[in-house]
Amino acid sequence: MSEMEQPETESGEVVLSKQPMVPTMHRFGGRDIETTYLGDNAFGQPTWVLWNPEEPYLIGVLRQGQIGYTFEQRTSQGVMLHEDVSFKRVQRALISGT
To answer: Rounded to two decimals, what is the model's pTM?
Structure first.
């Protein structure tokens, strides 16, 4: 799969790659976002970093826990923390930017 392909489920949900340290482009609404799987963190949770591909801008860090995802999102008002949310909620946060 090339880095410009974005695998999706039948419902249109983005599927994040678990190939370590290989950036992958995804489209969330009208935004292109580069995701890189970092591997499991110290708690055994899969972890990704999300970047704006047009400029070196960190969007946030995403971790997958047992209940849901934790997304630490950088916003113009500071860091916004979304804890134990569905991936659909993460996608909405990425589309809206908040």
So the answer is: 0.82
